[in-house]
Amino acid sequence: MNVQIDHNLEEIRRFRPSPEFAAGAIAKPDLYTDAAADRVGFWGEQARDLLHWHTPFTKTLDWSNPPFATWFEDGELNVAYNCLDRHVLAGNGERIAIHWEGEPGDSRDITYAQLTAEVKKAANLLTSLGVSAGDRVAIYLPMIPEAVVSMLAVARIGAIHSVVFGGFSPDSLHSRIVDAEAKLVITSDGGYRKGRPFPLKETVDAALEKSETTVEHVLVVKRTGEDVAWTEGRDLWWDDEIALVDADHEAKAFPAEQPLFILYTSGTTGKPKGILHTSGGYLTQTAFTHRNVFDLHPETDVYWCTADVGWITGHSYVVYGPLTNGATQVLYEGTPDTPIPGRWWQIIEKYRVSILYTAPTAIRSFMKMGRQIPQQFDLRSLRLLGSVGEPINPEAWIWYRHVIGGGSIPVVDTWWQTETGAIMISALPGITDLKPGSAQVAIPGVSIDILSDDGEPVTGTDGGLLVVTEPWPSMLRGIWGDPERFTETYWEKFGDKYFAGDGARRDTDGDIWLLGRVDDVMNVSGHRLSTAEIESSLVAHDLTAEAAVVGAADETTGQAVVAFVILKERQQGVMTNEEASELLRTHVSKQIGAIARPRQVFIVPELPKTRSGKIMRRLLRDLAEGREIGDTTTLAETSVMTSIMEQVR
Ligand code: 6R9
């Protein structure tokens, strides 16, 4: 177990909420006392307050068969109705749901009434294509309104979406389509990134060529107008088809445990896990946390979460949380610095964004570009900042608060995972004294502990393993098609306590500090990548005999992928090491996606292994981070590190 402490443990700065903020804050301290008095009852109350139930539930939690939980089991609801129709029926149909901003500068304002109308038509279209409750639909789209419309249309008819991030390769898309047995793929001709159109339909075509699949149709949104290849009978234009369907659609109620989506995330083996979420519990906790952690005042706030809908943050805090709460939000298609380095700040100024939720990696890259860029824009509309995806170092926290937030507004650091569905650890603005670098406290109704490797609670300030000790409403319900892996990965280590895979410690105030992953999962720019997945990609190349991948600390991206590769004997001397290294970097990027592209590939003669043949990644990490090499006594061959170092340095 390698728990690395990369925080400044002497952090003593505290920021008390201003009296004005506290007075107007949505979250009140009695949330904590209510939840502590009756945790399950508290969630029942939240579910009733925040959601519309077609059939009210009488049972809140069933935990009689751990780790398989059900929440609100006999209740019925429609997720899309909760995100759309009920706001219109309540008289808020003219409120803007989405200020959409395309990268080239085109934009669209979409009201709740308009979004509801679009989703109704899309739901009819899905039904006409033979999609019904329980069927899987893969969504492979850029950040355009149709991404949100598609997700909600799938939810509206009780089907299950699997959104695949637009940066993933044909192989990654193919394996996700096959694993979920998707019936339909929704994509677009392409999208815009860094000032240029990039293709998506082409990737779908390549993915579907890899094998016979269950996909019957590919629905294509026109975004860039670039040429696309066409398979008659299979491919359909979104615009043509939507024009043919009925505008009216009644949202039918589904059971609270109706599956809502599958989202694939990296695990410790090469095969991504399809994390399964259901409806009532997921929506309750995303709505609750979105409202209380971001202090959402839906009538006046303009909220912006910069995550792509291809990640869990986009699911919970672009689509389901904000829309359930009737928020007005910004949706932006492109990159932060296109066409100008201050594009994000320009968007904040344009829409008077009041709540911004982004990732430390973005903040650190803005820090590198310098404060003179955001300072050219009027950011005074901001009143709350959020962070997610990886630990935020105190320096970045302070910079975020001062340079972006003007020095006096709350910054909340939110810890959670694809598996947890919604925020689990965070300060509540207006209540908690803020402490830069610490995610701080469990949200009301969530029970967190830190255990030693053998399951004993850690007392004092030592590091240990983060666990969730009680079931929570938005918890994953399983891994698609693999109940054993679900039990094994999360529940075997500590019985009926959920093992998160993160190291953590408490400080003397009891605040929680996250210390990074304890397994072979890397965190690059807030995205999870598995060392095993990249290693298998490298080994799949004809040059490679063996490969080891580590996540090395990186100033901007948090961690960066660094690979060590042994070339096959017959490949040695065929090209220079630089050429081989470049070829392999491109190969990984093509096979998995650009985010997996290694920062460095070192061609080495050997890899450090224990006597039992396990690669000692710890030593490679030392090397990749330019540190003294640690203890090498368990190596089978102690001279190995010397010969590797000669190559690397
Ligand atoms: C929401 C999301 C989950 C992993 C998680 C942890 C890291 C996320 C964090 C954080 C420290 C935070 N992580 N938020 N670490 N502080 N505020 O990112 O989900 O992509 O599944 O990643 O990200 O290591 O285990 P996901």
From TrEMBL:
GO biological process: acetyl-CoA biosynthetic process from acetate
Binding site for Mg(2+): V539, H541
Keyword Nucleotide-binding: yes
All residue ranges annotated as the Acetyl-coenzyme A synthetase N-terminal domain in the record: 30-83
Enzyme Commission number, as recorded: 6.2.1.1
Function field: Catalyzes the conversion of acetate into acetyl-CoA (AcCoA), an essential intermediate at the junction of anabolic and catabolic pathways. AcsA undergoes a two-step reaction. In the first half reaction, AcsA combines acetate with ATP to form acetyl-adenylate (AcAMP) intermediate. In the second half reaction, it can then transfer the acetyl group from AcAMP to the sulfhydryl group of CoA, forming the product AcCoA.
Protein name as it appears in the record: Acetyl-coenzyme A synthetase
Organism: Orlajensenia flava
